[in-house]
């Protein structure tokens, strides 16, 4: 972020003031002092609900720009969204990005994402189905732990049309190799 890169990020309000609620659309760019900046990132804890016991952010729907490249650590954690579409240009989804999104039932991941970070979906208790793009190469530790409703992971690949997991030791082929899931991958899941 800054004047040289001409990019900006969505960040949380000072003093955790609640400024995001209802239907939220993040624009592709903003203009400040006659300079245009491209929105490329949801910053650390940027749209995270920092005050859930005080009513929280209460975002009912979220529209992310196609210019978005990164969702930083905890970017949407504790959000009350029930579904979410991540634009295909997103290259990085950091740890805890969707942590404790207890109302989330479905998510559309970017087509080119290669890694699901540590604790990314941890405690998304209503998440029941995840469609993984064929680009996925690795999973972080406990990325789906405590997702108690999760019963199906679907891998978008002609070679492996469906992935059913019965326990954290389950493996399936990726790029011709067999890759074990990391410790805690799906702890306390129905899988």
Summarize the structure.
Helix content is 0%, strand content 30%.
Task: Write a structural description.
By secondary structure, the chain is mainly β. Helix content is 0%, strand content 30%. The protein has no helices and 15 strands. It has strands at residues 7-10, 22-25, 29-32, 35-42, 59-63, 70-71, 83-85, 92-93, 106-108, 115-116, 129-133, 138-139, 152-156, 171-174, 177-180. The strands form five sheets. Strands 1, 3, 4, 6 and 8 form a five-stranded mixed sheet that branches. The chain is globular and about 50 Å long. The model is unreliable at 159-183 (pLDDT under 50).
Key features?
globular; 191 residues; five-stranded mixed beta sheet; four-stranded parallel beta sheet; mainly beta
Topology:
Layout: E1 7-10, E2 22-25, E3 29-32, E4 35-42, E5 59-63, E6 70-71, E7 83-85, E8 92-93, E9 106-108, E10 115-116, E11 129-133, E12 138-139, E13 152-156, E14 171-174, E15 177-180
Parallel strand pairs: 1-4, 2-5, 4-6, 6-8, 7-9, 9-11, 10-12, 11-13
Antiparallel strand pairs: 3-4, 14-15
């Amino acid at each position: 972020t800054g004047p040289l890169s001409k990019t900006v990020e969505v960040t949380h309000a000072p003093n955790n003031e609640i400024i995001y609620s209802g239907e939220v659309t993040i624009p592709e760019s903003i203009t400040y002092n006659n300079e245009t900046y491209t929105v490329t990132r949801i910053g650390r804890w940027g749209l995270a609900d920092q005050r859930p016991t005080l009513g929280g952010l209460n975002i009912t729907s979220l529209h992310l720009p196609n210019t978005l490249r990164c969702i930083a650590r905890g970017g949407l954690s504790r959000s009350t969204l029930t579904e979410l579409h991540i634009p295909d240009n997103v290259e990085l989804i950091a740890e805890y990005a969707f942590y404790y999104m207890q109302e989330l039932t479905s998510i559309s991941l970017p087509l080119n994402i290669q890694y699901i970070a540590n604790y990314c979906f941890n405690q998304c208790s209503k998440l029941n189905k995840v469609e993984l793009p064929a680009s996925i190469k690795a999973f972080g530790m406990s990325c789906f732990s405590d997702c108690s409703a999760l019963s199906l992971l679907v891998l978008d690949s002609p070679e492996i049309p469906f992935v059913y997991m019965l326990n954290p030791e389950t493996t399936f082929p990726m790029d011709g190799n067999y890759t074990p899931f990391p410790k805690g991958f799906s702890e306390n899941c129905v899988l």
